[in-house]
Amino acid sequence: MLVITTKHSEKRNNKFFNEQIDDTIQCEKLKMEADISSQAVGLASSADFSLMNLFIRADIIVKSVIILLIVCSIYSWAIIIDKIKMFKKINILSEEFEEKFWRSKSAETFYNSLPSNEEDPMTSLFKESMQGLLKSKSKTNLAEKMGGILEIGIEKQISKIEKGFTFLATVGSTAPFIGLFGTVWGIMNSFQSIAISRNTSLAIVAPGIAEALFATALGLLAAIPAVVAYNRFNNDSKKYSQKLESFSKRFLSII
Predict the structure, then answer these.
(1) CA 76/CA 218 separation, integer angstroms
(2) What's the CA gap between 196 and 185, in Å, rounded?
């Protein structure tokens, strides 16, 4: 009878001891979760998401992407500002040139009165055609020869006007994908951080994801103005080309 009572008492003590161990383990788990949560909240509250800090925290690949996109954007804006000024200037100068030309007594007289430092494409086209006309000794097939000179001159002037268009088109078509590459690379690094820290809290990986999305934003910031500017300038170039062709036809008609 005493043996049975002792065994029952030991079993009860073991059960009580196991329950205490389970409670202790559960308390430790809750404490660890609380510590992780507090660390995550601390990281989220202390993280600085300013653009400069996003750049500083980024790795070398994402930094390279960001620098490349910033350089492309700056150069694109330089081209855009230059082309806006150029088209405004050449349109005004061409109108003035045509008005003076059709009021002059003769093409040769007007040619001799032109200054040598004119930058207007229409003036340059007229000068080149007149030089070809004055150098031509044979008067046979003169209209055909002048037509060829004017056609080559128009192509030459339009190629000068369209200088920089290729860069705008390239930036507009590739910048979003360059930014996307930086984003994918940054997100890959964020997932690696999750695997290393074994913590799936968004607060842990938020800075890395923010850096990655910053690259995409810069890609769009570089691409959108470049595409809009390219379409506008391409349309302006076509209109100016038509203006040169119209002047060439009228000029041929009076030779």
Answers:
(1) 13
(2) 17
| pLDDT of amino acid 191 | 75
Q: What span, in angstroms and rounded, lies between the C-alpha atoms of 197 and 86?
A: 56
| C-alpha span between 93 and 231 (Å, rounded) | 23
Q: Which residues does 80 contact at the CB level (< 8 Å), separation at least 6?
A: 168, 225, 226, 229
What are the extents of the domains in the chain?
Answer: 1-46, 51-254
> What residues have CB less than 8 Å from 76, skipping those under 6 apart?
167, 168, 171, 222, 225, 226, 229
Going along the chain, which residue ranges are E strands? none
Given a contact cutoff of 8 angstroms between Cβ atoms, the answer to whether 150 and 125 are in contact is yes
Assigned token pair, 205: 């990986």
Neighbours of 186 (CB within 10 A): 25
Rounded to 10 deg, the angle between the 121-135 and 60-103 helix axes is 60
Closest to 205 (Cα-Cα) out of 188, 217, 193:
193
pTM, two decimals, is 0.73
Residue with tokens 């070809």: 132
Percentage of residues in the chain having pLDDT higher than 90: 35
Other beta carbons within 10 angstroms of residue 220's beta carbon come to 14
**Signed CA dihedral, 77, 79, 80, 82: sign only:** positive
Residue ranges of alpha helices (H) inside the chain are: 2-46, 51-57, 60-103, 107-113, 121-135, 142-161, 165-197, 202-254
